[in-house]
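In this section we walk through a basic example: taking a raw amino acid sequence and producing a predicted 3D structure, encoded as discrete structure tokens. The instruction is simple. Fold the sequence below.
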Amino acid sequence: MFRLATATGIAVLTTCLACSGMARGANGTEFFEKQVRPLLVARCYACHSGTKSGGGLSLESAAAWQRGGESGPAIV
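The resulting token sequence is shown next.
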């Protein structure tokens, strides 16, 4: 249940960023680095980075999280 809530939260956050236009350009990068990455590091990277990522979902790069994990896409 926790994994589903976490995946849903990441999906909602990413969707909001994409829709607002903040994901593009320097402002989007700055926002991601200051607001989003610290959250991912604190809550997600322990299980979703490195050689063995939980559920097959790696958050180490944009290409990795766009591929999704064993249960499907992380971003819809």
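Looking at the output, two observations stand out. The radius of gyration is 12 Å. The CA atoms of residues 45 and 59 lie 7 Å apart. In the next section we compare this with other chains.
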